[in-house]
């Protein structure tokens, strides 16, 4: 298989795994995806553009309506399966016990109060982020939304390249397939997103904020769970996006 052919298969795998966008998913796409971290930010551009469509109505419709449209668009395009990682992480972190006990809770299908609180806070934070975007100009709102999505996908690529898995599973399939040097290409692909609101720095701040936001679940996973798992990738996807959008809105307000 040629390098281009492998990259295309990896992109199909990334779209199929990270979004709900219909795509012709084929055998081998998953393996190509997990060994091609550059596909993470590429999907961020596509998904970010699709979820930002309701923001084109900023200034024409009431901000709460635009914010609701953005919230619904995010979960229509991205799906809600990443929220399962938020829920599992929430349950694991409220449990008293050692790493092994927390891991057991992480993989338990029972939904506890920690999961309910974590998911509720995540959805509320995203809705408020959408409300902030609705108060910006259309160009700035779209630029911030797209750059935040690219940034959170870049953060996931960084987790795959630098992270250590806590046990065999989906997390290990990513971390074992990429070396630290592999993060250079995804970073290069993501950099143009920082210019989407140029000369306003909002997009650049959103991009950096999303990558930084990944650090919260990453730190919690390393400290309390012994490493990264598939649930942590899902939680990072949600938390990074929220951090990026809020950072971009704050930057637009203050700078």
From TrEMBL:
<comment type="pathway">
    <text>Cofactor biosynthesis; adenosylcobalamin biosynthesis; adenosylcobalamin from cob(II)yrinate a,c-diamide: step 7/7.</text>
</comment>
<feature type="transmembrane region" description="Helical">
    <location>
        <begin position="115"/>
        <end position="138"/>
    </location>
</feature>
<dbReference type="GO" id="GO:0009236">
    <property type="term" value="P:cobalamin biosynthetic process"/>
</dbReference>
<keyword id="KW-0460">Magnesium</keyword>
<dbReference type="InterPro" id="IPR003805">
    <property type="entry name" value="CobS"/>
</dbReference>
<keyword id="KW-1133">Transmembrane helix</keyword>
<keyword id="KW-0808">Transferase</keyword>
<comment type="similarity">
    <text>Belongs to the CobS family.</text>
</comment>
<comment type="function">
    <text>Joins adenosylcobinamide-GDP and alpha-ribazole to generate adenosylcobalamin (Ado-cobalamin). Also synthesizes adenosylcobalamin 5'-phosphate from adenosylcobinamide-GDP and alpha-ribazole 5'-phosphate.</text>
</comment>
<keyword id="KW-0812">Transmembrane</keyword>
<dbReference type="GO" id="GO:0005886">
    <property type="term" value="C:plasma membrane"/>
</dbReference>
<dbReference type="GO" id="GO:0008818">
    <property type="term" value="F:cobalamin 5'-phosphate synthase activity"/>
</dbReference>
<protein>
    <recommendedName>
        <fullName>Adenosylcobinamide-GDP ribazoletransferase</fullName>
        <ecNumber>2.7.8.26</ecNumber>
    </recommendedName>
</protein>
<keyword id="KW-1003">Cell membrane</keyword>
<keyword id="KW-0472">Membrane</keyword>
<dbReference type="Pfam" id="PF02654">
    <property type="entry name" value="CobS"/>
</dbReference>
<keyword id="KW-0169">Cobalamin biosynthesis</keyword>
<feature type="transmembrane region" description="Helical">
    <location>
        <begin position="42"/>
        <end position="62"/>
    </location>
</feature>
<dbReference type="GO" id="GO:0051073">
    <property type="term" value="F:adenosylcobinamide-GDP ribazoletransferase activity"/>
</dbReference>
């Amino acid at each position: 298989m040629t390098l281009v052919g492998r990259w295309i298969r990896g992109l199909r795998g990334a779209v199929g795994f990270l979004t709900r966008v219909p795509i012709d998913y084929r055998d081998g796409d998953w393996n190509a995806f997990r060994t091609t971290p550059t596909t993470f930010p590429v999907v961020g551009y596509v998904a970010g553009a699709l979820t930002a469509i309701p923001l084109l109505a900023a200034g024409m419709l009431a901000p709460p309506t635009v914010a609701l449209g953005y919230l619904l668009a995010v979960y229509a395009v991205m799906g809600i399966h990443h929220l399962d990682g938020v829920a599992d992480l929430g349950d694991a972190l409220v449990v008293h016990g050692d790493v092994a006990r927390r891991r057991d809770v992480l993989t338990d299908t029972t939904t506890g109060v920690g999961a309910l609180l974590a998911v509720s806070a995540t959805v509320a934070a995203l809705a408020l982020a959408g409300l902030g975007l609705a108060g910006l100009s259309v160009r700035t709102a779209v630029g911030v939304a797209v750059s935040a999505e690219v940034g959170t996908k870049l953060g996931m690529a960084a987790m795959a390249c630098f992270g250590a898995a806590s046990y065999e599973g989906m997390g290990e399939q990513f971390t074992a397939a990429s070396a630290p040097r592999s993060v250079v290409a995804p970073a290069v692909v993501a950099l143009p997103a920082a210019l989407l609101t140029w000369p306003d720095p909002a997009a650049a701040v959103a991009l950096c904020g999303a990558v930084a936001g990944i650090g919260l679940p990453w730190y919690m996973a390393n400290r309390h769970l012994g490493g990264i798992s598939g649930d942590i990738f899902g939680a990072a996807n949600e938390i990074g996006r929220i951090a990026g959008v809020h950072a971009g809105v704050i930057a637009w307000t203050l700078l």
